[in-house]
Specification:
Blueprint: E1 4-8, E2 11-15, H1 17-31, H2 34-43, H3 60-77, E3 83-86, E4 105-108, E5 131-132, E6 142-143, E7 145-146, E8 151-152, H4 183-186, E9 202-207, E10 212-217, E11 224-229, E12 234-238, H5 241-245, E13 250-252, E14 261-266, E15 272-277, E16 283-286, E17 291-294, H6 295-298, E18 311-316, E19 322-327, E20 331-336, E21 341-347, E22 353-360, E23 363-368, E24 372-377, E25 385-388, E26 394-399, E27 405-410, E28 415-419, H7 426-433, E29 440-444, E30 451-456, E31 463-468, E32 473-477, E33 483-487, E34 494-499, E35 505-510, E36 514-519, E37 525-530, E38 537-545, E39 548-555, E40 558-563
Parallel strand pairs: 6-7
Antiparallel strand pairs: 1-2, 3-4, 5-8, 9-40, 10-11, 11-12, 12-13, 14-15, 15-16, 16-17, 18-19, 19-20, 20-21, 22-23, 23-24, 24-25, 26-27, 27-28, 28-29, 30-31, 31-32, 32-33, 34-35, 35-36, 36-37, 38-39, 39-40
Helix pairs in contact: 1-2
Length: 565
């Protein structure tokens, strides 16, 4: 596209194709359309533009479109006599505006420098902050991992728009399903308000240059916290010294890194950290900051055909000897960590593979955007079992502690519990393939939006928790399907949640910047925190040291520590 430059009223502006492409790319990432974003990034060659390292303010495209609607309003209603037509017809990005046919009245045009005083009807509830799904995928982002997880975009209460009160109260067209107004208005239930006695400070540990999508405590060195960001950086923080200095314990740098960190996982000993990225490279780092595995280097400097696309989830085996990574192209690559080489490539899904978990050292379970769940053996001669688990994308799956039950959550608003037989002999696979419904223990129904994460309690083998785009989290009995508790109060999508290591507490966080800690036994909210700027909380992780519970919080570009007990 040629460069378009305009000069009018001494104001110069230009429209450049790379700028527009990058704005659309940032919007797709924020909205959770990672597959479409990847295709645009590849076809538009965004990695070669000068903007690839630039910080694009979150929801910038939506803000610009909102300002465009303001201009359309002025253009439609301004009259040469200095008055403006006041009509009640809504404005739309896609439809030509037609003023209402009801009797019109004119009012004096208020000078643009004057900021009208908000009326009671122009409350903050009409200016809902934007939200991102999240990290997601296992320790991954977007939620779907958290994947860094899928993202929803609906508005921005932090937008630098002094005239926001003039924006027509017609919702912008959101991707898929969104909450355009606070949760308490959409479902008729009043949200639980913050209790001053429960409020906790969240001390700043450090910051990234861009949004922090994911975090994970080191299992053997509890003071160390790993974080991954949209700025392609991975940092290891010391919760004590970093808090005082604001500097990371280690910054893991790779000259080839140029895209979002989507997932990370520590090995059981806490000596290695695996990370996946939108740049298609798997990296394994030593705690000291040295590179242990780089998929591009270990495969001869080129990306093999079966590894085309971003990595959405990485997970060490129970022993830490093996590492599984699932990718956009539907494959799972299992690496031998000691030998630093791929051990086996599993073609598990027709479309994107979104998450992976280990049954044991010899079998992995995967889920994908094709709605399938696949149990794959690392023995090429063994039989694998796959079945249609949900009616939409499966965002995450997790085995319980006994490894005999598997929970999966999906965009179809449900979570399902599956009973996995101890051995998958050929005869067993053939028998189950004829009727995989026999694996289903129960379906957890109740959420009104996409279920982004599922996790098992460490206290027992029967309690499972979920969080959803319907702004709630829930605790369930995995054997009966009964909903034990509903965690309400978030006014935006609930992107992330976790149990405390002892299983006594459950923490949830949302796109409105709120964090709640709830007693699993009583349902009482024992602690809470709210970001002053209502930045999105992308990920939280609990740790328990000397009987003291604390919570790592990834909020906006910041990494914070909330001490609960």
């Amino acid at each position: 596209m040629p460069v378009t430059r305009k000069k009018s009223l001494n104001i110069n502006y230009e429209l450049l194709a790379p700028d527009i492409n990058y704005l659309v790319y940032a919007y797709l990432i924020d909205a959770g359309f990672e597959h479409a974003a990847y295709n645009l990034r590849s076809e538009a060659r965004l990695d070669t533009t000068s903007d690839k390292k630039s910080h694009i303010q979150r929801h910038l495209l939506v803000q610009l479109l909102a300002k465009a609607l303001l201009y359309v309003e002025v253009e439609s209603h301004y009259r040469e006599d200095g008055k403006t037509v006041q009509c009640t017809a809504p404005f739309s990005l896609l439809k030509k505006h037609v003023c209402s046919t009801s009797p019109r009245r004119t009012v004096d045009l208020v000078p643009m420098s004057v900021n009208p005083t908000p009326t009671p009807d122009a409350s903050d509830s009409t200016r809902d902050p934007l939200k991102r799904k999240g990290p997601g995928r296992g320790g991954s982002v977007g939620g779907k991992r958290g994947r860094p997880s899928k993202v929803q975009v609906v508005g921005d209460e932090d937008a630098d728009m002094e005239d926001a009160q003039s924006v027509p109260q017609t919702p912008l067209v959101p991707p898929r399903e969104t909450n355009l107004i606070p949760h308490e208005l959409t479902n008729g239930r009043a949200a639980k308000r913050f209790k001053e006695s429960n409020l906790r400070p969240a001390e700043l540990i450090g910051t990234h240059e861009n949004e922090v999508y994911i975090c994970a405590w080191n299992p053997s060195f509890p003071a160390l916290l790993a974080t991954g960001s949209r700025d392609a950086s991975v940092c290891i923080w010391d919760a004590g010294t970093s808090q005082e200095s604001g500097k990371p314990y280690e910054t893991l740098t790779d000259p080839l890194a140029n895209a979002d960190i989507t997932c990370l996982d520590w090995n059981p000993e806490g000596s290695l950290l695996a990370t996946g990225s939108m740049d298609m490279y798997l990296r394994v780092w030593e705690k000291s900051g040295n590179m242990h595995i780089h998929s591009n280097l270990e495969t001869g400097g080129s990306i093999p055909a079966h590894n085309q696309g971003p990595i959405y989830s990485v997970r060490f085996s129970p022993s830490g000897r093996l590492l599984a990574a699932c990718l956009l192209d539907g494959t799972v690559t299992v690496w031998d960590v000691k030998e630093k080489r791929p051990k086996i490539h599993l073609k598990s899904h027709r479309t994107t593979c979104l998450d992976v978990d280990w049954r044991d050292e010899f079998m992995v379970a995967t889920c994908g955007s094709d709605g399938q769940i696949v149990l794959s053996s690392l023995d090429p001669s063994a039989s694998n079992l796959g079945w249609r688990g949900h009616q939409a994308e499966i965002n995450q799956l997790r085995f319980n502690g006994a490894r005999d039950m598997l929970a999966s959550c999906s965009d179809d608003h449900t979570t399902k519990i599956w009973e996995i037989p101890p051995l998958l002999a050929s005869s067993t696979v053939q028998e189950l393939e004829s009727d995989t419904t026999r694996l289903l223990v129960c379906t957890l129904n109740g959420h009104q939006g996409r279920v982004t994460r599922v996790m098992w309690s460490t206290l027992d083998m029967e309690t499972v928790a979920t969080c959803s785009f319907d702004s709630t989290a829930r605790l369930w009995n995995a054997k009966t399907g009964e909903c034990l508790r509903t965690i309400e109060g978030h006014t935006r999508s609930c992107f992330t949640a976790c149990f405390s290591p002892d299983g006594y507490f459950f923490a949830s966080a949302g796109g409105d910047g709120s964090v709640f800690v709830t007693s699993v036994k009583t349902g009482e909210r024992v602690a809470e925190w709210k970001d002053e700027d209502s930045n999105v909380v992308f990920d939280i992780r609990c740790r328990l040291v000397d009987g003291k519970l604390s919570l790592a919080i990834c909020v906006g570009r910041q990494v914070r520590l909330m001490r609960v007990t």
